[in-house]
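Class, study these two lines:
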Amino acid sequence: QVQLVESGGGLVQAGSFLRLSCVVSGRAFSDLGLGWWRQAPGKQREFVAGIGRSAGPKYYPDSLKGRFTISRDNAKNTVYLQIDSLKPEDTAVYYCAAGVRHGLYYNSYSNRADYDYWGQGTQVTVSS
């Protein structure tokens, strides 16, 4: 059984930074493409970042490039998301996701249906 457990969320002030972590178990971590998504109240789940199995290619939506950095540590079975210069509009539940489908690569990790596994999410709240 594959499990993804996020941590690192919390209540922070605008302008600060956070690093979210997601530990994956139950499957060979190096086989997995990984992504971070977020969902704000009343909105659809939004793609934030993706990273390939080799950690070389990274993917971000144009609207979020610059403040978000995804990385992975295959030795620790962990994927990270650093968020800099936090804004109130970054308030959301952040989800870690993983998958093995070729569609992940072809769709630049931005298609929700390409992911096989999801975490429960970690809440990030940014105060102004």
